[in-house]
Amino acid sequence: MIKSNKLIFLLFYSFFILYACTKQEKKNISKNKNHIKKESLLQEKVLPQKKLDTLNNKNVVSFLTEYGKQNSETKIRLETRLGNITIKLYKDTPLHRASFIFLTKIGYFNTTCFHRVVPNFIVQGGNSENAKTAQIRNKYKHYLIPPEFKKNHKHKRGALAIARDWENNPQKLSMPFEFYFIQNKKGEHHLNNEHTVFGEVIEGMSVIDKIIQQETDRDEWPYVDVNITTFIIE
């Protein structure tokens, strides 16, 4: 009789433990499902921003068009050891404006300097011997931008334009990483409709004149780097 009671007790206890474990397991499954659901919702919120980080040569137009809608800034300050330059980007060259804002916000230009200085012609920036400069270029696969030539944007003194390859480039696609300012007081109008002008200097032309006076090597690169630090103003 005692053995029988013990057997019944053990069976009842085993059933209770099994029920409790099953109930807890269901709670854990429900909790995990809720966690997965919340995590999924979180991913949905950040996914659009991650998509913007996939800029390449195949989606350049769609990427920059969308990026431009989300980032409408037009004024940037470039700080150098010789002073500051404030530029205004044109809204009617939306792809070039968006690209310049994009590269500013990811910190690309902060790794670069003015690497080409030609008196009575231009000062060119956007490159350096910094390893980070090459890393960012490689990450975005040297994407190219379709030209945005405008009759009202000329290569006047203070114009901001984009560099491009002249060989094997019949479409005159722009290289986004390097830009230049026209320093010549008469302008460089032979470059109109060859390079896209997408902005202009609104303050700091005297700084550009100082950069022009820097002593350079045979590659027109200043012996003492004129490094660039960029800030979005508005």
Task: Name the CATH architecture of the largest domain.
Answer: Beta Barrel
> Taking Cα atoms only, what radius of gyration do you get, to the nearest Å?
30 Å
**Helix content percent band:** 25-40%
The low-confidence parts are 6-11, 15-23, 25-50
Q: And the CATH topology of the largest domain?
A: Cyclophilin
The amount of beta strand, in percent, is: 15-25%
Question: What is the class of the largest domain in the CATH system?
Answer: Mainly Beta
Strand order of the largest sheet: 3-4-6-5-7-2-1-8
Shape: globular
| Helical stretch tally | 5
Overall number of strands: 8
Biggest beta sheet summary: 8 strands, antiparallel
CATH superfamily of the largest domain: Cyclophilin-like
- Average pLDDT value? 85
How many domain units?
2
Instruction: Specify the structural class.
Output: alpha+beta
Distance linking N and C termini: 90 Å
Secondary-structure element order, N to C: HHEEHEEHEEEHE
Describe this structure in words.
The chain has 5 helices and 8 strands, in the order ααββαββαβββαβ. By secondary structure, it is of the alpha+beta class. It has 2 domains: 51 residues; 173 residues, Cyclophilin-like (Cyclophilin), CATH 2.40.100. Strands 3-4-6-5-7-2-1-8 form an 8-stranded antiparallel beta sheet. Strand 3 and strand 4 form a beta hairpin. Helix 2 packs across helix 3. It starts with a helix and ends with a strand.
